[in-house]
Amino acid sequence: MESTFNRATNFVTRSRVWRSFFRHGMPDNEMDRSLVMTTNIFFHLHPVKVNRRSLRVTYSFGLGIISAILFLTLTVTGVLLMFYYVPATTLAYSTMKDLQTTIPLGQLARNMHRWSAHLMVLAVILHMVRVFYTGAYKPPREFNWLVGVVLLLLTLGASFTGYLLPWDQLSYWAITVGTNIASYAPVLGSTARSILLGGSEVGQNTLIRFYALHVIIIPLGLILLISLHLWRVRKDGGLAGQEIPEERLEIASLKE
Amino acid sequence: MAAEIKDQKTENIFPSAPTKTYQLMELVRGTSPMANKGPDNTVFSFPVVALIEVLLLLGTTLLVFVFSLLRNAPLEDIANPTVTTNPAKAPWYFVGLQELLEHMHPLVAGVLIPSVLVLFLVVIPYLDNDRTGAGRWFTSQRGRRITLLSAIYAVIVMPLLIVLDNTFNLREMLRGVAPELISQIILPGLIITLAAWLPMLILLRWKPTMREVILCLFTVMFVSAIVLTLSGFLFRGPGFKLYLPWAMPGGYNPLSGL
Amino acid sequence: MTVAKTTSDSKVSRRQFIGYAWAVAVIALFAQAAGALYQFVQPIVQAGGFGGKVNAGNVNEFAVDTVSTVREMHGFVSRVEPQGALTMSWTCTHLGCTVPWVESEKQFHCPCHGSLYNTKGEVTGGPAPRPLDLYPSEVVGDELVVDTSQTIQRTKFDQSQITPFPKGA
Ligand code: HEM
Ligand code: FES
Fold first, then answer.
1. Looking at the complex, does the CB of residue B122 fall below 8 Å from at least one CB of chain A?
2. What is the spatial order of strands in the sheet that C123-125 belongs to?
3. How many domains in chain C?
4. What pLDDT sits at residue A252?
5. Chain B touched by C96 (CB under 8 Å)
6. ipTM for the complex?
7. Ligand 1 atom showing the smallest separation from residue A152 Cα
8. pLDDT digits 0-9 by tens, B225-256
9. What's the average model confidence in pLDDT over B153-168?
10. pTM of the full predicted structure?
């Protein structure tokens, strides 16, 4: 029995097709475990080995990863919503109603998209706060902190533009008030507002502009910058938490 | 020769043996290519990190999934430009700004303060570029104390300012007495700046490091933002007036606007 | 091989000069693209409906000392005196909420941040920075015609803002 199973596995994993996909063997030894990381595009963001200190839950709370996971959830559920949603003032609201009442699991898709969006804003803010309090922005990670600030703004932008799309009273007035704040900025304010709204008040032009920003422009920016952000974490030598506090650097015998 | 005046301690760490062709000469303080490395303390990313990530993925998704089964996303009436909802609130992450708007001119609350906040975030790593203590929560015991004290300060002062301005409203008291530039821009701007810098006056006497100064400023701003957000989100009811969250008039539920 | 050297006092060699010229050209190209994008995203100007001339109604419908809400003009006709009326926008000058006329309070009361305006549109309370904006209007025959294509901002009320009504209206 066992040998049949082994033979079958071997037949698959040694076939030319399999080996054209994966350039490593079973990751049950150090060589192949390293190769998993270096030969796979999704894994290659990780180093082959990581320091135990940087894995402590109380160091990062996994908040950065959780933000990235929520972004993934949002992409999946968002694409599902796009199958039905129409960004027209005459249709947007009724397609939302359809999603909730007639489309199987439409309500679930919408709920998951909405709650993930709130949660992502929260996770990103908490991630920034933990990076700040652990002093992980210090050199050489200054640039990655800046990338993070832009990521925070993009996350807020994605949430804000998405808020208008259901075209209900909540969205309409939140966006009206929100964009009016911008018009108080000297010089650029009212220009920025009318470009964002595509007119002087929230209307069809606004809806389609926010839609374009929400489903393509901002997500593309996020994908680009999240990739840069994660790559930089590696290039800056992994998480700051693995750096050993000064006092432990001193050779034990010198301390006496 | 240095080897001769080697003390006993060095000898203990690395005893010289006649068969060896090398020996420890001296112990010195200083950096070496091995600094910051310490003893090898690493694990393979596969499968450990990969597993952690899969677990986080499952956990987060499950959380969102269960919450989505329990609570539906809100959908109010269709947008109607002729009728404003009462109250009309921004999404929760901007409601702190809306609370600020209640107390001062939109130029200060909506433009200047957010710009200053973002600018502050941008310059943090360039103001504080001392590497020591990177990767340690609050950097030091003193840093932890400063953070805690700043947080307590903001938790007390911000609600106080909100309630104070709500009872003795600067704008209404000075209406017709002083121009808006003073009552709505300069005065509130000064008050909020002062409130943010006050702890600094005490801190400066402790001869703080740059990290400690920034810990204090960031904490005051962050905790203030939380207070403002909670005030705007939970305590503002119809007409954007202050009420207790459980005693809102007209059956308004502050949680319904998520 | 002998190379004939061009004698020149210029500190910039020909290669450098061409290099700079390229750089400038590329920057100019990007600047042009940015300019084009700026043009592209400008709002579309729409004509007709709200945003054009709106007939607010017969002047006799607006009794003295009353405020009428006229949906088509997104605003109010406030007959502050027998001689005429003010035609005002209903957009709050604070952050743009729609301000309702509250008959029981005899004033305009914005639900967003509680701005209060009297019948002349002047701010009597709340954060609004200026009185309600005006629409230009005139009486044609017996009809009050309001031009909603533009609003007039003002810092205070004065008599010239009133659109005169014909005698006997
Ligand atoms: C879309 C939002 C974001 C995503 C998906 C993200 C993702 C991540 C991930 C996966 C890590 C690895 C460590 C961890 O899990 O904590 C990380 C580290 C880091 N992040 Fe973010 N991040 C985001 C936003 C931000 C923001 C807003 C900031 C700060 C303004 C920031 C600054 C940093 C820095 C400096 C590090 C290195 C931390 C260290 O060395 O300990 N990131 N980020
Ligand atoms: S929008 Fe009317 S008071 Fe703020």
1. yes
2. C101-102, C107-109, C116-117, C123-125
3. 2
4. 39
5. no
6. 0.87
7. 27
8. 999 999 999 999 887 888 888 888 877 888 87
9. 93
10. 0.86
